[in-house]
Amino acid sequence: MKRGYVCLNDNIFSTLLAITAEEQSKGLMHQKEPLVMSFIYPAPCINKFWMHQTPNPLDIVFCCDGRVSQICYGEPYSTRIIGSDAYSDLIVEFPLGTTSSIGLKVGHSAELIEPNSRELKKILARHSFSF
User: Of 122, 116, 70, nearest to 91 (Cα)?
Assistant: First the structure.
């Protein structure tokens, strides 16, 4: 899995990049060590998550067009659906409490900074996406 960096409201985090459908469907399931994972979509779409087989509580940050649109709580092992019907093109999962510790709010800036947009387009072009 590729690694990169995401910037939320001037806070930069190292992140795993879930780009392929397989990586996105697995997410942080069975991951015992809390990590940061970013789910990247080639175009805004409605995305919803659940925490089945995910052992750590998470802050789940939905973003669209460079802004945080929603911050949700992910309860370990829950099958409750997380996320609204709003569009997102970037979703970042953090260990629980990360967003409050940095004061992250809806409307704050959100961007993937590595890979940059040109590199990301090349990566996405190598994978088949159907929406």
Answer: 70
In degrees and rounded to multiples of 5, residue 60 shows phi and psi of -115, 115
pLDDT in tens, 80-110: 999 999 999 999 999 999 999 999 999 999 9
Which sequence spans correspond to the domains of the chain?
3-125
Residues 6+ apart with CB under 8 A from 74: 49, 51, 54, 57, 58, 59, 60, 82, 93, 96
Which has more pLDDT, 1 or 63?
A: 63
Say how many C-beta atoms besides its own lie within 10 A of residue 100's C-beta.
10
Total Cβ atoms within 10 A of residue 37: 22
**Phi, psi torsion values for 11, nearest 5 degrees:** -110, 125
Spelled out in words, what is the top-level CATH class assigned to the domain 3-125? Answer: mainly beta
- The β-bridge relationship of strands 3-8 and 110-114 is antiparallel
